[in-house]
Amino acid sequence: MLQFILKRICVMLITAACLTFIVFFLTNLFPNLEKLAKNQGNIRMTDDAVISWLDKRGYSQNIFKKYGEWLGVLPSLKVVDDKGQAYSRCSRPSIPASEASDFCGLLQGNMGFSSVFKDEVSAIISKRLSLTAYLMMAVLSVMIPMALAVGVISGMREGSRTDRTLSTFSIATTATPEYVSGVIFIVIFASSKTGLSPFFAEWGWIDGRTIVKGSAASAMDNITFRNFALPVMALALYGMGYIARMTRASMAEVMTAQYIRTARLKGVKFSTIVFKHALRNALIAPFTVIMLQIPWLLTGVVIVETMFNYKGFGWSLVQAADNNDIQLLLGISVIAVFVVLVTQLISDIGYAFLNPRIRVS
């Protein structure tokens, strides 16, 4: 197992290097750099002025040289601006270029400086990622138990009316995008003129005008049920259908296995058969799907966070893309790639713990 983990880590590092280079190459295409130059300099800059601006700041270097500087394996280029002031990637307002380190990249813990938020990329990502982490944990705590319950009940009674009803519900949730369900939830629960809120307010069942809030902006400071329910419901409902369908298929297959039939012929209680014998083997396939939900939630919250004004990781991605914030885009890409690769590693390791018969060849 240790040898397998070490091999996987080596493959992860190679994959991460390839993916980050592709993202770095795409973000450093000339149209993006031209837009950056005009945003940072003058929107009416001529083509020659743009090229001069990029040359002075090292953006016109060879792509591999720039990538090496960004990684921190090559020394950063030190340039002099129009005012005669020297600076480099490692220099900051409090650290002049003459005192800055030569190596200042990702390997040194430096993700760059955001041109939009005027702050360190690592500080921005740390803050926004923590907000999204709360949302992800809330979604997973709701989505996984509901999905497993629906899938197990459907798989236990394959072909029954209960199975058909729950399967239809699972398909409907998967076919409904989160931005559609989000709008529906807002109309039903967060509108003072439509849905359930006017009736609940008239009957005195709620204190305010709506059951929950249509915006999650206040949840960034203090999470409550009223300001956090809608984004959690929108994401959980969309993700649970796929897990439930995988669990149902896996559970139905396990329930027809020979050892399950033998246990039933021996007179073992049905609940014991389900929870002690069938469920563990049935969770192998859904476990992979559940692990895939983590990177999906990390990058898939873009629409939901924007819709509910929750300024987390996805919201930062939108802002970075809209404003051509290259350093922030690269930092977000690194985190996304890291999360995807780590979750895949955990998924592979989890196979062996869920079923001892699975061995790494």
Task: Give unreliable regions as ranges.
Answer: none
What is the molecular shape? Answer: flat
- Major beta sheet, strand line-up: 1-2
Compute the separation of the termini in Å.
10 Å
Whole-number tally of structural domains: 3
Largest sheet: 2 strands, antiparallel
User: What name does CATH use for the topology of the largest domain?
Assistant: MetI-like fold
Which percent bin holds the helix content?
55-70%
Structural class: mainly alpha
| Beta strand % | under 5%
Radius of gyration: 26 Å
Q: Write the element-wise H/E pattern from the N-terminal end onward.
A: HHHHEEHHHHHHHHHHH
CATH architecture of the largest domain: Orthogonal Bundle
Q: Total helix count?
A: 15
User: CATH H level of the largest domain: which superfamily?
Assistant: MetI-like
Average pLDDT works out at 82
CATH class of the largest domain: Mainly Alpha
Find the count of extended strands (DSSP E, 2+ residues). Answer: 2
